[in-house]
Amino acid sequence: xxxxxxxxxxxxxxxxxxxxxxxxxxxxxxxxxxxxxxxxxxxxxxxxxxxxxxxxxxxxxxxxxxxxxxxx
Amino acid sequence: xxxxxxxxxxxxxxxxxxxxxxxxxxxxxxxxxxxxxxxxxxxxxxxxxxxxxxxxxxxxxxxxxxxxxxxxxxxxxxxxxxxxxxxxxxxxxxxxxxxxxxxxxxxxxxxxxxxxxxxxxxxxxxxxxxxxxxxxxxxxxxxxxxxxxxxxxxxxxxxxxxxxxxxxxxxxxxxxxxxxxxxxxxxxxxxxxxxxxxxxxxxxxxxxxxxxxxxxxxxxxxxxxxxxxxxxxxxxxxxxxxxxxxxxxxxxxxxxxxxxxxxxxxxxxxxxxxxxxxxxxxxxxxxxxxxxxxxxxxxxxxxxxxxxxxxxxxxxxxxxxxxxxxxxxxxxxxxxxxxxxxxxxxxxxxxxxxxx
Amino acid sequence: xxxxxxxxxxxxxxxxxxxxxxxxxxxxxxxxxxxxxxxxxxxxxxxxxxxxxxxxxxxxxxxxxxxxxxxxxxxxxxxxxxxxxxxxxxxxxxxxxxxxxxxxxxxxxxxxxxxxxxxxxxxxxxxxxxxxxxxxxxxxxxxxxxxxxxxxxxxxxxxxxxxxxxxxxxxxxxxxxxxxxxxxxxxxxxxxxxxxxxxxxxxxxxxxxxxxxxxxxxxxxxxxxxxxxxxxxxxxxxxxxxxxxxxxx
Lengths: 72, 356, 249
Known about the structure:
The complex is a heterotrimer of chains A (72), B (356) and C (249). With 356 residues, chain B is of the alpha/beta class. Chain B has helices at 8-18, 34-45, 56-68, 79-84, 86-94, 121-126, 143-160, 170-174, 216-237, 257-271, 312-320, 339-347, and strands at 4-7, 23-26, 49-52, 73-77, 99-105, 136-138, 163-169, 176-179, 208-209, 240-243, 250-253, 276-281, 283-285, 301-306, 326-330. Chain B has two domains: 4-237, Rossmann fold (3-Layer(aba) Sandwich); 241-352, Rossmann fold, CATH 3.40.50.920. In chain B, 38% of the residues lie in helices and 19% in strands. In chain B, helix 10 links the parallel strand 11 (250-253) and strand 12 (276-281). Chain B is globular, with a radius of gyration of 21 Å. Chain C is of the alpha/beta class and 249 residues long. Helix content of chain C is 37%, strand content 18%.
């Protein structure tokens, strides 16, 4: 059971990859096959179940793309 | 309030208070120092804002900030200081903000001198800042007229949301005259400043004070809006006085201190059976072009007189459209021409004629 | 489900105009979150300066004024003097604050103006395309120091926080950064504390934030953060430079 649930506003993403770099459990990656309207690869999770709900990705995102909810 | 004998600069300061000034931001510079000095005492005593800034550049940007927050605000300075304020002034005009700017002219260019001068006419009416904007500019000739103009300047600034300059010279600033502070001024309907950046709790939506429009269509629309406003200023705020202008032989065009000298000169010329009138611009921008259409048929020429090398001269030439010969008589360096000098200039009109 | 992290209501819905990975975006969030958490959005007036962050007047969900280049602290003084109970902050880059606007900033501090200055130091002029700034490092290549900044020709990087700590009117002054999550959390704490000191009328507060400029530094966003840590921090040490604590009134 994942601790956290991520929601992305994909159209606001600029592909800066800071979230991917700072995710402590390394489950984020840029989907080379899918672009948003601005032409940036959108971010997906390799294994959503491993998300620990720490919200570091959201903390480091300059454009408030990621919303993080945690299961209590 | 009964008549009081008062120094020009201090009268300007008290008039600002009567005009409802909330905040003053200034910087020391001769010959206007009595304005901040007077206000530094009064504003504190009445819970109003007084700040002596670190420079005229800072002062005018404090004016921008306070005006953007909805206050009635002014600054005062003299020639080189007004030069430093030009960028701030165009920002204030560009952001459609009201404020009053007092300029007490001294000798130029550069550090120039501290004696009176009128060599900032172009600075005041052509604007030293960038872009298509205007500063509404009044040039009173007496301390009484300066007081009345100051009180009204705050209303005009608020009404048009634009900087208003009250332009005098060091002589008017430093001399004393008996004045009355309670003469009534024109009442204007002034809408509430619901555009001010004072915190969203004070108004619906979010207010932004700004002069940046990167999209051409936005800046065009904005600038054309300013232009439309300036047309109504020309329509409603152009002011001038016609003195002894019933079909004169000659006309003297002069403002501020120089129009007072001209008043004495035309009395002397009367004795020589020469009828000489005066066109006295009170608003320098908008310049009273229409006055020149009202010159009678017998006029032989226009003598422009300024304490400069001829700056208003250009506006007169434009307004005259080549109809009448124009002569120019000016003194610089801090000299204030004597009436006799204008008397001679009229009698030797040809000698001073400006040939195109 | 419980909300752990979401976009703050202190920012508008406008997409930020900053380059991908530019930490202006992170700093905007920290300022907006602080104002929101302190419950002062509706009585805040922000002053946008001129530089990449000129458009901050479109992003902060408060009344804003856009000030002339370098004059934000003067405009802020005008606003604060008229509305002493408002929260007033400026958001300035190193060109705006440390170059053209240094006099206005020093004198606002010296007057103890009760405002908060958010000073974003990225050692370069971003908006205009990568010119040298007063905080550019020795040897740093920019479009106006193509051979690298040299002390002989350009002088050394200017240390704003070190200079301002000696000004009486300063109540709280800290240099922070955002090059990793721990720094971001600390920067938030510092920004919020600065606003709190303003609410307590303690005087002038300023937070200097070492920030990135991936495009003009010619680095990826990640490498840019590393460059802050490895190259900028040694020149601009982080820490609290002044904490006056007692009220300024």
